[in-house]
User: Fold this.
Amino acid sequence: MRVGVIGLGLIGGSIAKACIRAGWTVFGYDVNADVMKMAANWRIGVDTGWDRWAQEVDQIVVSTPIDEVGKWVDAIMSTSRGCTIVDVSSVKTTLANAYSQVHPPFRLLSLHPMAGKEVRGFSYSTADLFQGHPCLVVQGDGLYFEGQMVDQWISVLRSVAVRVPLEQHDALMGIVSHTPYLISAATLVLAESYDTSFPLWSKVVGTGFLDVSRVGASDDQLWEEILQANHDNIKSTFAAFTHLVQEWNENIQAGRWPASLGRTTAIRSKIDPKKES
Assistant:
């Protein structure tokens, strides 16, 4: 398999390294010249322009900021003779127009590998970033979501395939990814508000605080882009969270234990333990 990756950040770089591990021939492009130099050390072909290797590869992964995906889809279709375009964006609904432009000899595979780090950039990318984690295979009209190529990607990333309807994807991300980021970030902001009265707070944190706050320390500009792209779902889910917290606060202020806290162990048990490996 010959694959090109446009955007060699944490996700794109990790995808490229996973493909190399699988024995695929990998080409890459990034706007950052230093990243291109690092990629060359990983046997990622960067010596020729992307518009040249785009004519030779079987697939092109677009791993750019969400607002640039449409531009790249257009550029690929005007340059390549035909290939599979693989979108790995974390928000899908805003890409409906770009998706609708893809027609034979091109086809579109929409994936969302559910893994990441609180740091970004090629230097932090690893071939095993997605191992054991879900990879969402987005299903919808005009999308390619079954067949050998999909199975190959799941095998290369060493992920667990979860097929998700396009119309449900962004709402699901609001529940399991985007609102949790806001909660995690709020934990950090709350702790810092005690700097004056309890300056030792940062010296006494345990693994629980570290686990809860990890994603909240991620790049805020990246998250602003994601939250803006999924704004409608975030509004709904964060409002539901705020309502829950208000309900809990009323109980706590009155000296009562919120009844729903008694269900959390059972709820947590629904998560496949392999996702935490």
User: Anything to note?
Assistant: The longest strand covers residues 107-113. The chain has a mean pLDDT of 94.
